[in-house]
Amino acid sequence: MRTTVGWQAAGPATPLLRAPLERRDLRPDDLAVRVDYCGVCHSDLHAIRAHDGAERPPLVPGHEFTGTVTEAGAEVTGFSVGDRVAVGNIVDSCGECAMCRAGQENFCHTFPTLTYGGVDRRDGSTTLGGYSREYVVRDRFAYPLPAGLDPAAAAPLLCAGITVWEPLHTLEVGPGSRVAVAGLGGLGHLAVKLAVALGAETTVISRSPDKADDARRLGARALIVSTDEQRMAEARDRFDVVIDTISAPHDLGPYLRLVALDGTLSHLGHLGPVTVDAMDLLVGRKRLSSAGSGGRPATAAMLDFCAATGVAAEIELLPSAQVNEALDRLERNDVRYRFVLDMSDLD
Ligand SMILES: NC(=O)c1ccc[n+]([C@@H]2O[C@H](COP(=O)([O-])OP(=O)(O)OC[C@H]3O[C@@H](n4cnc5c(N)ncnc54)[C@H](OP(=O)(O)O)[C@@H]3O)[C@@H](O)[C@H]2O)c1
Ligand SMILES: [Zn+2]
Ligand SMILES: [Zn+2]
């Protein structure tokens, strides 16, 4: 075992505490990565709030990070010491099922190994995430960070970015598409940037009228306040794709009613049971879909697209010691638009 240091949850409410962590010794196909920057995803907050402290294995969040290879296993050929890499929220999969063979490791039939709170396939240990100075990862699930992408602003692409990219891409969003993005947070602002970069006419649906200027600066045509019933009614049937990134349970009806004939509501935000009135699907032959994370080919393609088009997250960079402040502010919707932790203060 090798040791590093990171930020660990002691329970659902208490602050994360700095703690020594163990990482496995390198397997032949492993990389040791010095974590340089790690994004703070709302899923981290959900995981911390659901964690009951002593009863469970330790929780170290963090599943969108960039870093530098410090050591490579004996059989690694694609990476060298010093390479910049990016790691998302999947660190392994079976590699054999139909989903893995199709390059959709995110939907692996045996469930992909998550970057934190997952179970390592070979030693059964609980994975500990990227709020730490070092991560040991199977080489297949590390991505070369394209030159030209800022390593701090690129970190959120690995969860927030890929999660919105896969549906935008598979729903063939491009020039002429009309896209609405509900919830202008970490996922939402990247959905706007990516949809705009793909050529779509893009609108934000938000409960926060004070985000209107930002929405336009990000490339959206307009921001519709979700509580403005008249504007919501005027926008009925208007969007080919609605990307829903809202982090709390909510009624899907108002968002389905924005979807155009044969269009799709892609429900990506708060995951859990939803109730849908079938009439909201029937009228307009609308589709309800969901997605999460991305397969290896799509993740690499998303990074290349972002490097080519200059898409990256708008971040507030904080020393990792301010992780608790970042989480508290994220909970209060006080983030424009993604916190990224600079892990260098852990040395
Ligand atoms: N499918 C996946 O694989 C996947 C991956 C990553 C994250 N997620 C989930 O996606 C959600 C968003 O994550 P994020 O990191 O983007 O979070 P975030 O930065 O906090 O953004 C969420 C946005 O949702 C809106 N919102 C929050 N609470 C709301 C409420 N009660 N009613 C209406 N709107 C509300 C806010 O936008 P406005 O102020 O504009 O209204 C907020 O900025 C989380 O639930 C997260 O767990 C899913
Ligand atoms: Zn995430
Ligand atoms: Zn599989």
UniProtKB/TrEMBL annotation:
EC number: 1.1.1.2
Single GO MF descriptor: oxidoreductase activity
Enzymatic reactions: a primary alcohol + NADP(+) = an aldehyde + NADPH + H(+)
Assigned keywords, A-Z: Metal-binding, Oxidoreductase, Zinc
Cofactor(s), by name: Zn(2+)
Pfam families to which the protein is assigned, alphabetical: ADH_N, ADH_zinc_N
Signal peptide: none
Superkingdom of origin organism: Bacteria
InterPro entries per the UniProt record, alphabetical: ADH-like_C (IPR013149), ADH-like_N (IPR013154), ADH_Zn_CS (IPR002328), CAD-like (IPR047109), ER (IPR020843), GroES-like_sf (IPR011032), NAD(P)-bd_dom_sf (IPR036291)
Similarity comment text for this entry: Belongs to the zinc-containing alcohol dehydrogenase family.
Cross-referenced PANTHER family: ALDEHYDE REDUCTASE
Protein name (database record): alcohol dehydrogenase (NADP(+))
Origin species: Actinomadura yumaensis
Lineage, uppermost ranks: Bacteria, Bacillati, Actinomycetota, Actinomycetes, Streptosporangiales
